[in-house]
Hints:
Blueprint (H helix, E strand, L loop, with lengths): L3 H13 L2 E6 L5 H16 L3 E6 L31 E5 L11 H6 L2 E6 L10 E4 L6 H11 L6 H14 L10 H11 L5 H9 L4 H12 L2 E3 L2 E6 L1 H5 L11 H5 L7 E7 L5 E7 L5 H7 L3 E2 L3 E6 L3 H10 L9
Parallel strand pairs: 1-2, 1-3, 3-4, 4-5, 7-8
Antiparallel strand pairs: 6-7, 8-9, 9-11, 10-11
Helix pairs in contact: 2-4, 2-5, 4-5, 5-6
One manganese (II) ion binds next to loops.
Amino acid sequence: MIPEPAWRRALDLIGKADEIALACHVSPDGDALGSMLATGAVLRAQGKRVVASFGDRQFDVPRLLRFLPGQDLLVPPADFPAEPELMITFDSSTPDRLGLLGPNTAKAHEVIVVDHHLSNTGFGTLSLIDPHVAATAVLAEQLIYRLGGSLDRDIATCLYAGLVTDTGSFRHASTTPEVHQMAARLVATGLRTDEIARELWDRSPFGYLKVLAAALERVSLEDGLVWTYVPRVDRAAYGLPYTELEGLIDIVRRTDEAEVAVVLKEDDQGAWQASSRSKGAVDVGSICSVLGGGGHHNAAGFTSHVSVEDTIAAFRALLPSRDGET
Length: 326
Ligand code: AMP
Ligand code: MN
Ligand code: MN
């Protein structure tokens, strides 16, 4: 629960600001971008000057999120105010996760951090952080109501994208009665759940199938860890952007014989971005934190600048041994 004085202070800071700069984590997912765009639309409707961005070197909205309404708020990181009067961050546990926009948090006069990561470092001047909620979109909806805003279909579409992304379509343990109640409020605006599901999960360029085939060809199962990797040359052969690989971990993690799954994806700069998932017994969030990343108990990630073999060896060394000792 977020304490009432924190909400009151957020409303006060927002009320006083003329220009509000919104940022979410790099390579945004549905929760990061959806929460930011929904909040941005409400703030703009209330007469604020609003810009929104994310700090990727290559500033492209991932293809599967291009259907989200309200993207005219987006500016490339180069056009983001260097010293914003008020900055609000979404779904980002550290300034690092904001990429190029990380340094702006140190220069902003006030920074409201809206997030649900347990690993959040509390880097703002005001925290709206609740690790018990399923998605940052849950907090964005609460902020919208407290601002006196209401949900139209476009705003609800953004929030719904966040909710379904982070609950894995209402499959993860985070799917509480409150999550379904929120979904009911959003769906009541008339949004198209079928179209959103298709945009998010049920389409991809042909090249994805080829890259997927190569990744599955390389998959290994060792002592309860299933893992694979995708070098950038695989993607280059089909002109496939890095962000198209987001769903790969969901295929790999289905392996019955594995408790933990890892996918290493080489980004366009040559760094390995690791996605990890646990079925519950292992806290991959702590493991990834040790490796310089972060996330949740069952879903976490980190960035590696060493080889595939060394990256997996470092991850494996932090796994509890299978006979129960750590
Ligand atoms: P992903 O595997 O990219 O879907 O990410 C799963 C979770 O781990 C999300 O909550 C991310 O915010 C977090 N995460 C992924 N990569 C990183 C990273 N490099 N540093 C910190 N957290 C990360
Ligand atoms: Mn996220
Ligand atoms: Mn999230």
